[in-house]
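Case 293 in the screening queue. Each case pairs one protein sequence with one candidate compound; here the compound is zinc ion. For every case the pipeline is the same: read the inputs, emit a complex structure as tokens, and attach any notable structural observations.

Predict complex for case 293.
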Amino acid sequence: MKFIYLSLFTVLSLSILANSDSTTTEKSTPLKKVEKKAKKTGVQLVNRFDFFVDSINNTIPDSLPFYDWITNDIHFRKFDFSKVEDTLMVVLNDSNDHYTHPFNGNITSSFGKRRWRYHYGMDIDLTTGDTVRNAFNGRVRISTYSKTYGNVIVVRHDNGLETIYGHLSKRLVKIDSVISSGTVIGLGGNTGHSYGSHLHFEIRYFDEALDPRDIISFENFTTHYDTLAISQCNFMYREELKLMSAIKYHRVRSGNTLGHIAVKYGTSITKLCRLNGISRNSILRLGQRIRVR
Ligand SMILES: [Zn+2]
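Case 293 output:
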């Protein structure tokens, strides 16, 4: 398995940035210089992942089509990691950056399957008004109200990860603000699709959700390690998702019989009975969910 030494890369690119006289250049990337220097120093730039990890340090050229800076769409693009064989190293704690736990509360719901849906984050119990803090140095990509997330902040971090903070009662940072690890970004709440005050906290890499428990100890409020190795293993849950999407339900309406439903979904009454643990003579209730696949 190939390894990409992103920490080395980060040091390299940072030193180049420090040497350049421009301090404000948006995306006027020193990519060529990086490549030249990489050749000289023997650092292997294996593929384009090298560049998006250092995302907001202005190292991503416009020519790279992904990881755009999009401020009006939380989930603008998914990346298919199933074809990536490399293990990507992401720096979590070093002399420039460190992890801050957004809110030290109990977990009320974890990442994973939640009945017929998938829960892509961790729910942290809090009281409305509690302060919520930013996890790593970064820049605010989204600060908006969404039907599902409620008041939500998305921060893209210098290390390439993105974190999402949902159901806030108040947002305290604006889009494009450069913020530090520990900056108060909002107040906890119960907005959007939420039942009871809590923080919905997600960690994503290229908009692909990671299980936050792979990265953080929710008992100690710290990261497990100072670097995170992202590989195929982190996306194994996609198999579970595939299985879930293969399952389909029908909600019983007035006049529906098992026969109607079987015809509608191209299956048989016998199969429907087996899937739902019912008999042919079972009486269907209005609104009942019948599994059809
Ligand atoms: Zn949640």
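Case 293 observations:
- Residues 3-68 form one domain.
- The pocket of zinc ion is lined by residues 109, 119, 121, 123, 200 (CB under 6 Å).
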